[in-house]
Amino acid sequence: MSNRSKTKTTVDIYGQQYAIVGTESTSHMRLVASIVDDKMREMNSHNPSLDINKLAVLTAVNVVHEYLKLKEECELLERKLSEKD
């Protein structure tokens, strides 16, 4: 378990206020919330008829997809680097 103290901050995501608690800095938590808000707004621009719950799930699916693609890319680069040693 981390020895870092927890910080609480309030963020706005898609017009809703959320209290977020974490060991990261307030600026980091606000950045994460801002990215989620931006992604939800992007998804809404392509699917304006979705209710907020479906929009949130679609946003989560897209973010996890992007994460997995970046993780694969990172693992590939790490393998290439280790092959050079």
Automatic annotation (TrEMBL):
Homodimer. Interacts with FtsZ. SUPFAM superfamilies: Cell division protein ZapA-like. Activator of cell division through the inhibition of FtsZ GTPase activity, therefore promoting FtsZ assembly into bundles of protofilaments necessary for the formation of the division Z ring. It is recruited early at mid-cell but it is not essential for cell division. Pfam families: ZapA (PF05164). This is Cell division protein ZapA. Its main location: cytoplasm. GO terms for biological process: division septum assembly; FtsZ-dependent cytokinesis; septin ring assembly. GO terms for cellular component: cell division site; cell septum; cytosol; plasma membrane. The gene is zapA. The keyword Transmembrane helix does not apply. It comes from the Bacteria. It is found in: Cytoplasm. Belongs to the ZapA family. Type 2 subfamily. Keywords: Cell cycle, Cell division, Coiled coil, Cytoplasm, Septation.
